[in-house]
Amino acid sequence: MAGQDLVGSLTVGEWLDRWLAGKRIRKSGISRYETDVRVHLKPRIGDRRLDRLRVSHLSEMFTAISDANAEILEQNAQRRAAVEELATVPWKGAENRARRKAMKAALDAMPPFRRITGPSTRQHIKATLRAALNDAIGQQIITFNPAAHVEIDPVRKPKALVWTDERVARWRQTGEKPSPVMVWTPEQTGAFLDFVETDRLYAMWHLIAFRGLRRGEACGQPWSETNLDRHSLTVTGQLVQDGWEVESSEPKTDSGFRVVALDDDTTGVHERHRKQQQAEREEWGPAWIDTGLVFTQENGSWLHPGKVTDLFERLISASGLPPIRLHDLRHGAATLMLAAGIDVKIVSDTLGHSDTRITRDIYQDSRELHQMGEKLKVTTSGQGPTRTPPSCNFAA
Question: Using omega within 30 degrees of 0 as the cis cutoff, is the peptide bond preceding 286 cis?
Fold first, then answer.
């Protein structure tokens, strides 16, 4: 009876704490769960009794999050307008200085710029609560999972767009990207690889551009799983960020464990990179840190994935090319493979997608990427490897 009373008085917040304490997953995953619980779930529904939690309570929570978003957007707009107005006030003159002082005081009293809780974050909050409540059902604490039935706005993923000449011209005028997901043409990818040819991490940029490895996978690729004689590498791990800390981890899904075939050009690039790394090892001598990884800092230590992204962005800026995310190099790699006539199943396996539908959704359902791929099939038909656009000879 006492046990039943204890279960009956258990709050959502108490259960979430207990659930988190019992999770046995990688550190970065736990951090994401903890954020959902600390920032959103406990403040909004933590005091409710677990066995009395209803779908209506969750609908009210997500409505409150949407209302908070609207308030944040309005406050951000007010602060932005105040900052812009302050910038127009001259520095000289007692009257102007007094006005600037008053405006700065008003700015200090305003809420700071804040981010809203976007659609993908709301979906993750729901997924976290659903997982926690499923475990409560498994332990026979409750019998119903309201998180499985609450409806929230679906996440609409932006379609990938190609950096056409017209979009590049507009970007040079305004500095605005047409979409969060942009893809270089093969010529632009080739121009980037030409520009970074002397960069010590050139082999990594080349590998991501041609074989679509994820950032963490490239940073964590060991030489022991890289067989240049057989023109292949096996993805068995990755380096991931937990905040700003870096840890080694297995791929997130079974499909992440995969063998990736390497073309002759990529193999040659990696052979030259291995000689370069050996020269660095000899230069550092006893101070060399033997991590066994293909891509490292000059002393052999791990690359920080966040710093790799920063470097990629600086290289793009210096090259004068239109901006893309490092992850968007995967889109270009997939487009080149599909254009070369590689079966979508092989492309999906190379990229580490769990289902070919993911590959089709991203690449074949994007009209622009599909059209670019069809154009490549025509322009590269019967030709050997080219430098710009990059090689479409993907046979191992």
Answer: no
3-state secondary structure of 159: coil
Nearest alpha-carbon partner for 118 in 75, 163, 174, 62: 62
Residues 104 and 250 in one domain: no
- Cα distances (angstroms) measured from residue 248 to each of 131, 222, 242, 277, 291: 25, 11, 10, 21, 11
Report the half-sphere exposure of 344 (CA within 13 A, side-chain side): 14
Half-sphere exposure of residue 265, counting CA atoms within 13 Å on the CB side? 17
The percentage of the chain sitting over the pLDDT mark of 70, rounded to a whole number, equals: 87
* pLDDT tens by residue, 150-171: 998 877 777 788 899 999 999 9
| Co-location of 120 and 148 in the same domain | yes
pTM of this prediction?
0.67
Start-to-end C-alpha separation, the chain = 67
Q: In this structure, how many other beta carbons lie within 10 angstroms of the beta carbon of residue 125?
A: 24
CATH number at residue 245: 1.10.443.10
Return d(Cα 99, Cα 247) in angstroms, integer: 51
Check whether residue 79 and residue 193 sit in a common domain: no
Final residue in a domain of this structure, among 156, 175, 206 = 156
Structure confidence by residue, pLDDT tens digits, 317-370: 999 999 999 999 988 888 878 777 788 888 888 988 877 777 776 665 445 655
- Tell me which amino acid residue 370 is: H
How far is Cα 272 from Cα 266, in angstroms, rounded to an integer? Answer: 10
In a shared domain, residues 145 and 176: no
> How many distinct helices (H) and strands (E) make up the chain?
17, 7
Q: How many residues does the chain have?
A: 396
Instruction: Quote the CA–CA distance of 126 and 39 in Å, as a whole number.
Output: 13
Q: Which domain holds residue 241?
A: 161-379
Are 128 and 178 contained in the same domain?
A: no
Return the amino acid letter for 252: K
